[in-house]
From TrEMBL:
Protein name per UniProt: Dolichyl-phosphate beta-glucosyltransferase
GO molecular function, a single term: dolichyl-phosphate beta-glucosyltransferase activity
Main localisation: endoplasmic reticulum
Subcellular location(s) per record: Endoplasmic reticulum membrane
Length: 239
């Protein structure tokens, strides 16, 4: 968290000095963790002020999707960026996804989404992965394409920029609260005809990920089937 927060706030403060009309807030969501996340994040709140840094602590673990949704619904900006706390994507790459969002104009009903993507790094990452992890990756990509999202190659990069209207429409319809929530988010956007850009960003493998490949990917595969079947049968509906 400190590495990501230091980098993000350094960038945001410098950008605000260059352009006084630029305003920002950083919302840290502690998803019911038992470590010192809230305590560490609160030091930044004290340093920069609660108008710029806010900390939300969930009593019970909700899953990444539930935590991100809580942050989105608590946000006040015209544009909302979701980013992982590990800092795998350089924060200055926000300018790339902003450009992707800009290129989608005119936005229908002020709705648009720009997704950071690691698809351009796939060949290099395969060389570093085990055969089993590579097989799981291709299997997951196929299921995403076959069942849910056709046009986005990397649905799982945790660096996505949404207009406020797009965030409101998609997150208010979200059911999946764990790792596959990104897929449902983009599936909803696809169904609502919200334009989506995929933009290449820098990405670094960070040690210490809590995602256990086999069991988490099995759960994600199950969630993909749920997404497709429940929307097809009308169990889940979009307004």
């Amino acid at each position: 968290v400190p590495l990501m927060m230091d980098e993000a706030l350094d960038y945001l403060e410098k950008r605000q000095k260059r352009d006084p009309s630029f305003t920002y807030e950083v919302i840290v969501v502690d998803d019911g963790s038992k470590d010192q996340t809230t305590k560490v994040a609160m030091t930044y709140c004290k340093k920069y002020g609660s108008d710029k840094v806010r900390v939300l602590s969930l009593v019970k673990n909700r899953g990444k999707g539930g935590a991100v949704r809580m942050g989105v619904f608590s946000s006040r900006g015209k544009k909302i960026l979701m980013a992982d706390a590990d800092g795998a994507t350089k924060f200055e790459d926000i300018e790339k996804v902003e450009e992707g969002l800009k290129n989608l104009q005119p936005w229908p009903n002020q709705m648009a989404i720009s997704c950071g993507s690691r698809a351009h790094l796939e060949k290099d990452s395969i060389a570093k992965r085990s055969y089993f992890r590579t097989l799981l990756m291709y299997g997951f990509h196929f299921l995403v394409w076959f069942l849910c999202v056709k046009e986005i190659r990397d649905t799982q990069c945790g660096f996505k920029l949404l207009t406020r209207e797009a965030a409101s429409q998609t997150f208010s319809s979200l059911h999946i609260e764990r790792w596959a929530f990104d897929v449902e988010l983009l599936y909803i956007a696809q169904r609502l005809r919200i334009p989506v850009a995929e933009v290449a960003v820098n990405w670094t493998e960070i040690e210490g990920s809590k995602l256990v490949p086999f069991w988490s990917w099995l759960q994600m595969g199950r969630d993909l089937l749920f997404i497709r079947l429940r929307y097809m049968t009308g169990a889940w509906q979009l307004e």
